[in-house]
Amino acid sequence: MRKLLVALFLVFNLGSGAWAQTAPPADASQFQTIIAGQLQAFKADNGSEAYSFAAPTVKQVFPDAESFMAMVQRGYPMVYRNQSYEFGALGQDALGRPTQQVKITGLNGEHYVADYAMQQQPDGSWKIAGCTLMKIEGVGV
Length: 141
Known about the structure:
This protein has helices at about 1-20, 25-45, 45-50, 55-60, 65-75, 75-80; strands spanning about 80-90, 100-105, 110-120, 125-135. The N and C termini lie far apart (about 50 Å). About 45% of the residues lie in helices and about 30% in strands. The chain is α+β, with helices and mostly antiparallel strands. A 4-stranded antiparallel beta sheet has the order 1-2-3-4. The protein is built from 6 helices and 4 strands, in the order H-H-H-H-H-H-E-E-E-E.
């Protein structure tokens, strides 16, 4: 049992190091441009443009723009259509990926905080690797 725990510890710690990417503050403007571009593409119902901002790991799960857009419309309606958004702080997710916080007001007036995980590509560009969303009760953006 102890060997199994040690093996799991090594896998998770070594594995997380492989995923860890730190983003200098200068990348914040790139993150914001990418996220704003995707939000604008959602608003315009431009699936291929919105999909172009997704990281390869996302594209493995959603192999085409249509399935990606369907997932966003069902699972993230406040991201797909919103009244407004503003960028918050940079952070880091549990996998060590840099994140960009976005405060979103949905069409229904409800407020959310979205953390967009970013993944650097071999060519140095950044793509959106995921988004976690939390509803904020009774708090204005």
